[in-house]
Amino acid sequence: MSLLNVSSPHAHRPLSTATVMQLVLLATLPGIAALSLFFGWGTLLNLAIAIPLALLFEACVLKLRQRPLAFYLGDYSAVVTAVLLAIALPPHSPIWLVAIGIGFAIIIAKHLYGGLGYNPFNPAMVAYVVLLISFPVEMTQWAAPLSLIDSGAIDGHTMATPLDVLKNNNSELVADLFAHNPGFGRWAGLGWEWVNLSFLAGGCFLLYKRVFTWHAPVAMLSSLAFCSLFFYDGGSSASKGSPLFHLLSGATMFGAFFIITDPVTSAVSNRGRLVYGALIGLLLFVIRAWGNYPDALAFAVLLMNFAAPFIDYYTQPRTYGHKAKQPPSKEESH
């Protein structure tokens, strides 16, 4: 009797790479719509620049590597990288900033390591960190909510994010900070609450489609919520922020469902994903509270990308049919 030779992971209904990437792109639409609604068309402009550039850089590198263009361009991986980076960048970013980021993500962070499936670090986050370190002024000029601009509550079109305002606060109670700062909403930043909820909705859609498992996102959000609750002092001038503030501010939900779930750069086993996600949540809070960057998702993700093989080594599931290793008995030790 001949046996069917099927490689792991033995999925009953495996999704192709192109299908997975298309589902990810579809899931980003609610978040993109919320960003455009509250912060203007800047994110759409970023996308209009980033996607063609990503395809161009991808095609050029594939040509140099003598790989078939249609096959590799058709997996949508370059488009997903472009979309994730365009969302992470401030709206209305300069064309040259987007071009440098996309070029670094595709050429250096992806193809220098061998292309899709071989890159140890998330390409979009590598590019984001390079841009943040190299061009801090352009990377920290986030667009102000449209409602504040239209009402004349602020003079400029850019402003510090609520995470940045809270981090640099040393005189006002959190309640007063919310009352006196027009950029704050009910629970977190004005507009940021709905942006995070929109990315949460997109992430739940991906979970429903079984694009990834719940382990890493839930572990990250639970760890972030626990750390912020543990260090929350009720809202003094030295407060690090409430759990709800951290969960609905910055790139929290975007990172939890669209960045740390990258199957190439994250841990493999379910237990490993729990550890991986929990440590990202811990690092995210630590850097937000005591580091130099208000929203340090990219740094937390890259640090754990580096540690993912180590996590996999110690969280490998027991081979089917084998018992867990037991310590030697006293008789065996003599």
TrEMBL record:
Q: What is its EC number?
A: 7.-.-.-
Which segments cross the bilayer?
44-62, 69-89, 95-113, 125-144, 187-207, 214-232, 244-261, 273-290, 296-315
GO BP annotations of the record are: electron transport chain; transmembrane transport
**EC class name:** translocase
Q: Does the keyword ATP-binding apply?
A: no
What are the alphabetically sorted keywords of the record?
Cell inner membrane, Cell membrane, Electron transport, Flavoprotein, FMN, Membrane, Phosphoprotein, Translocase, Transmembrane, Transmembrane helix, Transport
Which Pfam families does the record associate with it? NQR2_RnfD_RnfE (PF03116)
Q: Which residues are annotated as modified residue FMN phosphoryl threonine in the UniProt record?
A: T161
For activity, the cofactor(s) needed are: FMN
Main location, first listed in the record: membrane
Q: Topology relative to the membrane, per the entry?
A: Multi-pass membrane protein
Spell out the subcellular localization from the entry: Cell inner membrane
One GO term describing the cellular component:
plasma membrane
- Subunit record text: The complex is composed of six subunits: RnfA, RnfB, RnfC, RnfD, RnfE and RnfG.
Function per UniProt: Part of a membrane-bound complex that couples electron transfer with translocation of ions across the membrane.
Q: Which family does it belong to?
A: Belongs to the NqrB/RnfD family.
Q: What is this protein identified as?
A: Ion-translocating oxidoreductase complex subunit D
- What does the record give as the organism's lineage? Bacteria, Pseudomonadati, Pseudomonadota, Gammaproteobacteria, Cellvibrionales
